[in-house]
Amino acid sequence: MELPAVGGSSSRKPSKRVWPVLAAFVFAALYFSIDLPLLSARGSRSHVRIPLHGADTLAKCRSLSVKPAPPPGFSDRTHSDRNEPGTPLVLIRNATIWTGLDNGEDVVHGDILLENGLIKNVGDVNAFKLNMVNVTEINAEGAWVTPGIVDVHSHIAVASSPSLNGANDANSVKGLTLPWLRAVDALNTHDDSYAHSIAGGVTTSLILPGSGDAIGGQAFVIKLRPTSERSTSSLLVDPPYGLNGTAVDYDIPPRWRHMKYACGENPSGAYSVTRMDTVWSYREAYEHARQIKDKQDEYCSKAFADEWEGLGEFPEDLQWEALVDVLRGKVKVQTHCYEAVDFEAFVRLSNEFQFPVAAFHHAHEAYLVPDVLKRAYEHPPAIAMFAAFSRYKREAYRHSEFAPRILNDHGIKVIMKSDHPAIQSRWLLHEAQQAHYYGLPANVSLASVTTNGAELLGLDHRLGYVKEGYDADLVIWDSHPLALGATPVQVFIDGIPQLQASFTKKRDDRQAAPITPSFEKEAEAAVKFVGLPPLEGTPITSGGILFQNISSMWRRDESGVHCVFRTRDIDDEGVVFVEDGEIVCAGTMGTCTSFLGDKGLTVINLEGGSITPALVSAGTSLGLQEIASEASTVDGTVFDPLQGSIPAVLGNGSIIYAVDGLMFGTRDALNAYRSGVSTAITSPISNGLLGGVGTYFSLGAKHKLEDGAVLNDVTAVHVTVAHQDGGPSVSTQIAALRRLLLGPYTGERGASFEAIVKGELPLVVNVKNADIMASLVKLKQEVEAVSGTPIKMTLVGAGEAHLVAAELAAANVGVIVTPPRPFPFTWEGRRILQGPPVTEQSLVTTLFTHGVTVGIGHQGVNEYAPLTGWAARNLRWDAAWAHIDSHGLISMEDALNMASTHVEKLLGVTRKASDSDTVATKGGELLSFEGKVVAVVSPRRNVVDLFE
Ligand SMILES: *[C@@H]1O[C@H](CO)[C@@H](O)[C@H](O)[C@H]1NC(C)=O
Ligand SMILES: *[C@@H]1O[C@H](CO)[C@@H](O)[C@H](O)[C@H]1NC(C)=O
Ligand SMILES: *[C@@H]1O[C@H](CO)[C@@H](O)[C@H](O)[C@H]1NC(C)=O
Ligand SMILES: *[C@@H]1O[C@H](CO)[C@@H](O)[C@H](O)[C@H]1NC(C)=O
Ligand SMILES: *[C@@H]1O[C@H](CO)[C@@H](O)[C@H](O)[C@H]1NC(C)=O
């Protein structure tokens, strides 16, 4: 090994790896064996000199074509590079382990040993009866264990929560293509999201720059647990060599890198350009990178041929090196792209410049164009998507909840992702659950948030499986992970338990995957109608309908929702007979026979399904918009009397009525209707103090003039009190509210506030912060002291309401929680209660146990998708989740009330309960993953809408 003396490669680091050293030796030997004889034979050829760092240069040249791979010998490791010394061994006994192997079909009943940050052993109980000391032993009692959830699309730490101007680092505005930016340089270590996401079982996330740029920069994989070093770099998983200034060892394969791209609306919007400009910006950048790559290749072929003469420096450019690596196939291209036009442009780019696309993210139209995806260079991209979050912008208008199953049927890799905080990654598993409900097979659904994600990140050699030698990232679940409300009992990252205490435990009745309905026809229609299948039901306006084979039934009267019967034994099958849109008989076949007339009879077998009062949506702008970010599809925003002048034509003391702007038949409304939400309460869209007057209407109606379309023109007055960037102070807003309440009363606005003070109309306040809630309670008391009459006050939003639960109950203030499971989006709403497994009670449970009247609103309230109605369809599951999270405190009846009668009462609905709508579900209950809505019975509209 006398080579160093000649070749000057003494700076090369010694390596433990066997094969690269051998390869390097063979290559170097080859090279020098040509040169050495020349040297000795013709000592005069001293001008053909290898430069001082020639061997390094050659090593670099050789490495150019080496594809990323785990370091040699990786599978033999005994310690994780992320191991925290002193971590006790963990032995999980008696688990039901979904390993991720065998296409997601492999389930092992047994034990798991975690040591040195790795999974040491899986399955063989007896093998673990060792003389182990300092072992934390956990008896899983047969509970499900899965690999930690992998989120391939997160903005944790670059778009932090609570959102503050000082920590908003997701999008640079310095140019359309910025491949040199690195998310790692902006990772906020104080994001509240870390703990929040871990509580949902998320262990690993790909942190991407935002989507404002065509190329937004490099993304990095992190694990979410706190590290003893508290640094950003200690969060990283397999960071690219050289990131922290350590010299790169060119003799071992590189690690995967990630680059964020965005097509379509977002870069167009951020830079006021067209799609054509964005695609040109790609081509221009790629052409530049290609030229550098060609120069490098030319340089290296000369170096390999020993033509050092005048070769100069290796051609490199720090700004473009990452894009050159993309062209060399060493970077996972992660592209935010929604529409057919954008996929096609990007696929064209991938073929023009010959680089593979790892995944299209969001990709709401991917299910419509599988053949376009299959034309991408080398392999079709995986599709990383949402389950139901859609229609917040035009590109997401043709979204289908059946996209995951359709893509899977086409052999495309399906991954569910959060885009945290758009969907909070804590609930990423719920995305997989919804995909499963709409038809994605169970094995693929679980893989979509574990193994498939690990593979997309190029980390399936250490993440995404419960397998010996893999990172010790695991979740023990209280339920089957595809069961609604499944919650971690414990989460391990690098073998370290992440939950201090766990306020949930194995739930024996929830250990099987739900048996979900069939949606074959619906999925076909989604494709056939290019994403816009007709959503209206088939109206039956005459004749009788007999629903039979019913296993449970709830009805409502003036006092609320009541269970009529609920049985698992449906031998004595229940029937419900409906005529002229009204239930005329409910009971057994024997009791109802006499009611069946001889008019035409439609018989519907509910196969053990259910009859349930319809749910009521609140807290979104359902009925006032179709696509939130397209102004021409939205009712618009009201004038705020506190912030600007009101046009004179509106008159002094004007107030706006939501009913005047109502639009019917929006896709969000119809999807909600098909999910058992038959009515909604909506208030005017506002970004100031005074919203206006709400209205109560039917989601299944075709237009406002139809019978039963509008059920209450006027419901309540809606206002917002919040900390505003540049707006009037909170104290100013409270002062204005005091003035509005105490008079003098001017115009219609005055009349509305006078009605509030007389207790005739509720005052509904959008509020997040507990201190503001306290001010509102004081204001209420102040006004009541003057008037002598109780005011009806309701808080909406109310993420911090648990801090004043007893006081709200005492003041008789009701609460509608939106979103139903709170998240610290803002500083003023950051003091949330996480709920199980982190705290014993959830926000809803706490309010309920204090005697506050609680209603449940929607998820869609955040800075990315304000007040969009997409989530209304999920009210059934949000209500069920409140019941599940309460561990027995909130009954199914209570949950149904929270999603219907309480919402009506709190928001000022005066319509009588007796003629409210009823929903028939097949196969299971409305508040479950088993039931499918097949009919809505509406006495108000005198119709039964069938959906089968
Ligand atoms: C076991 O843990 C205790 C307390 O952390 C420590 O003092 C002891 O040295 C450990 N024993 C071994 C064998 O590691
Ligand atoms: C594992 O737990 C299940 C459920 O509690 C129990 O039935 C079974 O006996 C346990 N098996 C062992 C080996 O402890
Ligand atoms: C740089 O990163 C490597 C790989 O993660 C690590 O082994 C090394 O200690 C780091 N060096 C410094 C100076 O942080
Ligand atoms: C598991 O996944 C494969 C696709 O990868 C699918 O063909 C198969 O039907 C699935 N198995 C089950 C039981 O759903
Ligand atoms: C009622 O539904 C159950 C569950 O789907 C089914 O097994 C049973 O055959 C049905 N009975 C009748 C009479 O249709």
From TrEMBL:
Q: One short Pfam family name for this protein?
A: Amidohydro_1
Alphabetized UniProt keyword annotations:
Membrane, Transmembrane, Transmembrane helix
Which GO molecular function entries does the Swiss-Prot or TrEMBL record give? allantoinase activity
Q: Does the keyword Membrane apply?
A: yes
Q: Which residues form the Amidohydrolase-related domain?
A: 400-492
Q: Where are the transmembrane segments?
A: 18-39
Q: Which residues form a coiled coil?
A: none
Q: Which GO terms describe its cellular component?
A: cytoplasm
Q: Which InterPro entries match?
A: Amidohydro-rel (IPR006680), DHOase/Allantoinase_Hydrolase (IPR050138), Metal-dep_hydrolase_composite (IPR011059), Metal_Hydrolase (IPR032466)
| GO BP field | purine nucleobase catabolic process
Q: Which PANTHER family match?
A: ALLANTOINASE (PTHR43668), AMIDOHYDROLASE 3 DOMAIN-CONTAINING PROTEIN (PTHR43668:SF5)
Q: What is this protein called?
A: Amidohydrolase-related domain-containing protein
